[in-house]
């Protein structure tokens, strides 16, 4: 018997599939995707696209979180082990205006990064918690 057919592995995959099917999980993943797209585009929306270091940082972090959200949505059973990355990227988004070199910060830039990063961080923590939560049967659906 291969490891993929082991009863424990099959039970875990079923459990994660049930988690992924919950409406609250789907909403959190969708909102994380939207927040990530905003963070990726925020330099040009808010008007700090000329701050190339932070603009590229936001673009890369936003695209990374968007790809994670798509992965969680399409294959949560296979990607649940990476859910901890989204909150970490959210924290990075929050502190990046002060840590990226050669950035002249503005109020709009800071608010954009702090709010976008906080939303990504909170949603990432929520998606992580959903996968770690004990399955309580039909009550959680």
UniProtKB/TrEMBL annotation:
The keyword Transmembrane helix applies. Keywords: Membrane, Transmembrane, Transmembrane helix. The chain crosses the membrane at residues 27-46, 52-72, 84-101, 113-132. InterPro entries: SPW (IPR005530). It holds the Pfam family SPW. Residues 29-125 form the SPW repeat-containing integral membrane domain. It comes from the Bacteria. This is SPW repeat-containing integral membrane domain-containing protein. It comes from Rhodococcus oxybenzonivorans.
């Amino acid at each position: 018997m291969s490891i993929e057919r082991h009863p424990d592995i099959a039970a875990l995959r079923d459990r994660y599939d049930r988690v992924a099917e919950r409406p609250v999980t789907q909403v959190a993943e969708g909102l994380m995707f939207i927040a990530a797209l905003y963070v990726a585009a925020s330099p040009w929306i808010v008007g700090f696209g000329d701050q190339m270091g932070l603009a590229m940082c936001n673009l890369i972090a936003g695209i990374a979180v968007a790809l994670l959200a798509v992965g969680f949505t399409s294959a949560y059973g296979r990607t649940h082990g990476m859910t901890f990355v989204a909150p970490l990227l959210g924290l990075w988004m929050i502190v990046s205006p002060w840590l990226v070199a050669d950035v002249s910060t503005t109020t709009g830039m800071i608010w954009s990064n702090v709010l976008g990063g906080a939303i990504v961080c909170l949603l990432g923590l929520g998606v992580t918690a959903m996968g770690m939560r004990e399955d309580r049967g039909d009550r959680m659906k």
